Amino acid sequence: MTAEIRSLADSLRRFGDDRLEALLVARPDLASPLPRGLGPLAARAGGATSARRALEALTLPELHLVEALAVLEDGSSPSQLAAAVSSDPATIAPALERLITLAVVWGEDRLSLIRPLRDGLRSPAGLAPPAAEDPSAEEARLRVARARLEHPEALEALAWGPSIVTGRGRLARDLLAAGIVVADGETLHLPRPIQLALREGRVRRTHAAQRPSPSGPERTERIPGSRTAQAVEHAFESLRLLSTVRSFDEDPPGVLRRGGLPQRDLRRLAERAGTTVQGLATVLQSAWQAGLIGHDGQEWRPTKDWDAHRLLGAEQRWAELVLAWARGHHLAAVVGTPDSSGTGRSLLSDLTRRDGVRTRRGSLLQVLRTTPTVDATEDSLAAALAWAFPLVPAEVIREETAALLVEGAVLGVLDGGALTVLGQELVLALDEEITRADDRLAAALREAAPPPVTEVLLDADLTVVVPGRPAESLLSLLDWTELVSRGGALTLRFTTASVRRALGDGRDGEALLALLEEVSRSPVPQSLTYLLRDEQRRHGRVQVSRATTVLTAEAEVLDLLQIAPEAAALGLHRLAPTVVVTLADPGFALQVARQAGLSPQAVGPDGRPVAEELTHSLRGGPVEPDLVTIEGPELRVPAAEAVARLRVAEEGGADLSLTDRLLDAIARSEEIPLGIVDGRGGVVVKQAQPLSLEGGRLRAREAGRDEEFTVLVHRVTLG
Length: 719
Fold this sequence. Notes:
Blueprint: H1 8-13, H2 17-26, H3 38-45, H4 48-56, H5 60-71, H6 78-84, H7 89-101, E1 105-106, E2 112-113, H8 115-120, H9 137-150, H10 152-159, E3 164-165, H11 170-177, E4 182-184, E5 187-189, H12 192-198, H13 226-243, H14 263-273, H15 277-289, E6 293-295, E7 300-302, H16 304-309, H17 314-326, H18 357-369, H19 378-388, H20 394-411, E8 414-415, E9 418-419, H21 421-429, H22 434-448, E10 457-458, E11 463-466, H23 477-480, E12 481-485, E13 490-494, H24 496-504, H25 509-519, H26 526-539, E14 541-545, E15 550-552, H27 555-563, E16 573-576, E17 579-581, H28 586-595, E18 599-602, H29 639-650, H30 658-668, E19 672-677, E20 683-694, E21 697-702, E22 708-712, E23 716-718
Parallel strand pairs: 14-18
Antiparallel strand pairs: 1-2, 3-5, 4-5, 6-7, 8-9, 10-11, 11-13, 12-13, 14-15, 15-17, 16-17, 19-20, 19-23, 20-21, 21-22
Helix pairs in contact: 2-29, 3-30, 5-7, 6-7, 9-12, 10-12, 13-15, 14-15, 15-17, 15-20, 17-22, 18-19, 19-20, 21-22, 24-26
């Protein structure tokens, strides 16, 4: 006959190595630092702080069992527990086994909930806290039976609602007289025994043992491969949006006093990039979390990590961007909305941070992988997420679900309510080491995307057709043209406005003509050559080089610059008809020349255009250490090694510290002699039972007395 389990420590001593490893993986705080034995491990698991963390990790059916155990008496059987949640022992068995593995519940035929949760759950399942004046269970049943004769419908409505009752009418007076409700100041409430009697002894009306699956219409694809093509297009579009960060060198957005990117600057950047505010916010937030952009307190700029990132292949750049999003702690879709205090949430700030959002985002991505043929609705996804995280407020669940659908679509991992082929690989990558995850995602995009093309078709009507996915060398065409259509081919058109815009941004028309001559199957149309050179002459090319700062141009162009009101801040000094100098920074000179309606261009000391990309020394944004680890906190040592050390300590192979010996006594509910150092340096010895050890304070009860006392651990000695 198996010996009875008398405590949580007894329960842990019956765990096999696999189960102990599962406990430490699920609750890594128990092994930091590693306790010296299973007794101290049990006491730590029964601590209030660790117990609260464990409670937050429970799913809905597990939480229902915990709430029921908090209401039932200690030592209730599994069948009694099943009845309390309107289920049966076989159905609740998996959830109960996990609660035992998590060291939240211990026992076999007689189940017990750890003390911090029993005491801490004051209103489980909406029931009122217990009170000394509550009627007995038998008296409660009698009162309910009598009241049902007169008010059956009212009692049915009260049974499964909250314990607080509103109203002061005739019905309330009748229920008060019948002892169904009691007055608590200005409010009325149902005593716990009364409400349990109304529920016929049950704590929960239903038990959702299985997670609800996402539901929605069946995914259809009229043209095979079209969804994959769309996902690839979104992935490369996110890289195009990321490339707009290079404009921060010449026109950096400002930094808010409380941190973050001003909303007006975000709207301006999104309009310039030709995308939505939420789309650009998703990309910039991910870039910030990857350390690609940062600020010096005044302006947002690319970082030194940006310099290394832009040298990678397109597929690798996308992989790093999407991993930073998936493993990040921020929501981009809430930018611009007010928080609980009414403050607008700004992009690239702590106001968009949400504790636990990474875990919940990963949970939704995982559940989407189980329904690849369903275009899940937002409501069904919210229900699936609420089942996995029942303690998270409903409005947070809805907000994060909506954010996932928006942000995932921007990055190409979601298509409506379903994962794309890229999203399927992302789910697998979340459980991998960062380098392997990067390689997996880059390979997925490389396989799904068509090979890049390096040639274009030019027409006399100023259109240019890229017959496939453009290679990196052709992406500069997007800066000079207007988009006509996307699809199997990319159709662009040169217009006067688009050419002027590119010249205003400092692009080089001669370099564009050289590129077109190299990649075009046909000669460059004369009309395009005339357009580019005419607009370049009309705008006036200003060359900016670093001396103090030197500006060179045609004499009439410098005349226009000097008389422009915007140029007053430069303090220009004319050295020659075609040369002026200023003490201002070259970047500022570029901005002023552009504001004056000219077309500035950065050049090197030899007068040749310099590379558009500058080098940077700024450090990046909030690169979290856990962005390069597997999801969630990690054990300091592997779980198997931690269990081996616990076994050695349990067999007496390691000396217990004072803290571990106190924790062991707490786990065993044993009385031990405690030496307490008084204010004069003497030691007073008391036979006492340690109750808890939190925050460096020991709470204990002296033998033979009901009063408890608290003492600092550093004042305690053991014989």
